[in-house]
Write a structure and sequence with these properties.
Layout: E1 2-13, E2 16-28, E3 33-37, H1 44-51, E4 59-64, E5 67-68, H2 74-83, E6 85-88, H3 100-109, H4 117-127, H5 143-155, E7 161-165, H6 173-188, E8 192-196, E9 208-213, E10 216-219
Parallel strand pairs: 3-8, 3-9, 6-7, 7-8
Antiparallel strand pairs: 1-2, 1-4, 4-5, 9-10
Amino acid sequence: MLRTKQLTKSFSRQEKTFEAVDHVDFSLDKGEFCILTGPSGCGKSTFFHLVCGITKADSGEIFFNGEDITNYSEKQLTELRANKVSYILQGDSLLSNFTVLENICLPHKLCGRYEGLEEKAMELLREFGLDTMAYDYPSNLSGGERRRVAIARAFVHGPELVVADEPTSDLDEENTAMIMDYFQRQAAEGKTIIISTHDLSCIRPDMIHYVMKKGVITRA
């Protein structure tokens, strides 16, 4: 499903160059549920940006379902993210002037996907205990509620791969467990999921655990 070969990305800071992602070999099969841990600044977000096609690598290769996407055009990468890959960003990514339901559906409607979209969005809102907030605006929601809306948006179109950067960072213990249960069920149904977190309580026995340190990813 997802494989990288010698993936590398460097940045310069205060006239010094450092490897945010340092020759990373990584792979996940269809239906695997992976957790990536590591200290802040170790390169997790940069790695996610690379595999989702948001940032271009300095060197190395990225394969999705066996196809080399390393040199995809921006149009091809946009189509990939619209149809097969979802990326849940760190922080608040909702649009303040759209309702919860509109926030979930709008990105996919812009890609021409309408059929059954609102019905699926409402199903996810019920799953996450947010169905009574479908017509509220993000300003009326707590941080944890906004985070759950962003997760619903990532799953509404049935992606093959979900990449989630700190998806439980704004959630309490109960909602963290609920979201992790949902991720686990989605993986059992064939979706491939990779999340990053600092919360080691999220680690479950059936998950694949990788650790990132100074741009290098190793199996835990």
